[in-house]
């Protein structure tokens, strides 16, 4: 098992940030740790990376106990903290070489991670000159330097613009083909885009732990479609299995279906039969979003 958490409780004074939390993550899984602000995500990650001690319970990373075998845990884990601390006046390559020296990592590894994280064009720049997306890449490169088996990423895409977001997600997905990844986020689409499994935490307790493939088996489905022309909602209601139609903007419609069948083909046929052009068409899975709201509301 890559990560094993058993009945972890963490108290800050009288406040319980984590309450009897247990889960395990197998080698090679990419798991999204999803929860609203203050749910306890960072606290859990700090315990797994040995920065904090739990008040009660036990955890192991790569089969090393976090309170007894801290050095081995640190060797096994690459950690990107929420507020990625960087020495802004250092150059990218210099910063990574500096960290490699501290941990006695060969310089050749620095070049490997620079290449792997797409930092080559920026490696000669000062960190302060980099965009937020590239700074996150530096953080990720730093977390990968010692080639750890497990990556723990605390909100790695917060504050990134849509292009950077896609790039960093791709990078994480790529890295995740070889490593176990636990990443925290508030963003459901992120989990859907990157993860195999989702753990939702609310007020220090796990409220859901499921494979994404199990969630998508759900029968609810929304197809969002943009036509080149206005369409009467009663017309759209004629498409098979439509339960509800919403005109969300201009000629954009959300069609709610209650079936496992992928309905995009039927929407395409509808457009074709009615002489409409489709400007965009995609299927949205509402399950995770609905579950999140349901499970984390007060
Ligand atoms: N050092 C601390 N001292 C006291 N309380 C703390 C400390 N760190 C966190 N907390 C509290 O513990 C709870 C969980 O915080 P944590 O940072 O783990 O949540 P989170 O899910 O990571 O939130 P966010 O998404 O906002 O980063 C919060 O109520 C927070 O205020």
UniProtKB/TrEMBL annotation:
Record keyword Transport present: yes
Protein name: ABC-2 type transport system ATP-binding protein
Domain ABC transporter: 3-228
Keywords linked to the UniProt accession: ATP-binding, Nucleotide-binding, Transport
Highest rank taxon of the organism: Bacteria
GO MF entries: ATP binding; ATP hydrolysis activity
PANTHER family in the cross-refs: ABC TRANSPORTER, ATP-BINDING PROTEIN (PTHR43335:SF4)
Transport keyword on record: yes
CDD domains in alphabetical order: ABC_DR_subfamily_A
Native species: Ulvibacter litoralis
Family: Belongs to the ABC transporter superfamily.
């Amino acid at each position: 098992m890559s990560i094993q958490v058993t009945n972890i409780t963490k108290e800050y004074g009288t406040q319980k940030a984590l309450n009897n939390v247990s889960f395990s993550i197998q080698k090679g899984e990419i798991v999204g740790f999803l929860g609203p602000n203050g749910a306890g995500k960072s606290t859990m990650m700090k315990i797994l990376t040995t920065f904090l001690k739990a008040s009660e319970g036990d955890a192991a990373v790569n089969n090393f106990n976090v309170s007894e075998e801290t050095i081995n845990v640190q060797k096994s884990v690459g950690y990107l903290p929420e507020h990625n601390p960087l020495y802004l006046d250092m150059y990218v390559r210099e910063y990574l070489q500096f960290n490699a020296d501290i941990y006695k990592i060969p310089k050749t590894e620095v070049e490997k991670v620079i290449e792997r994280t797409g930092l080559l064009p920026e490696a000669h720049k000062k960190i302060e000159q980099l965009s937020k997306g590239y700074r996150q890449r530096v953080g990720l490169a730093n977390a990968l330097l010692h080639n750890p088996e497990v990556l723990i990423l605390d909100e790695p895409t917060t504050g990134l613009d849509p292009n950077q977001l896609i790039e960093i997600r791709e990078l994480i997905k790529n890295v995740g083909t070889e490593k176990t990844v636990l990443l925290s986020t508030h963003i459901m689409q992120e989990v859907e885009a990157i993860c195999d499994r989702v753990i939702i935490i609310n007020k220090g307790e796990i409220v859901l732990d499921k494979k994404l493939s199990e969630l998508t088996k759900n029968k609810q489905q929304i197809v969002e479609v943009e036509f080149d022309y206005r369409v009467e909602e009663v017309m759209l209601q004629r498409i098979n299995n439509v339960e509800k139609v919403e005109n969300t903007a201009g000629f954009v419609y959300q069609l709610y279906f209650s079936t496992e069948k992928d309905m995009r083909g039927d929407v395409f046929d509808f457009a074709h039969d009615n002489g409409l052009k489709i400007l965009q068409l995609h299927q949205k899975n509402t399950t995770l979003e609905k579950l999140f709201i349901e499970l984390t509301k007060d």
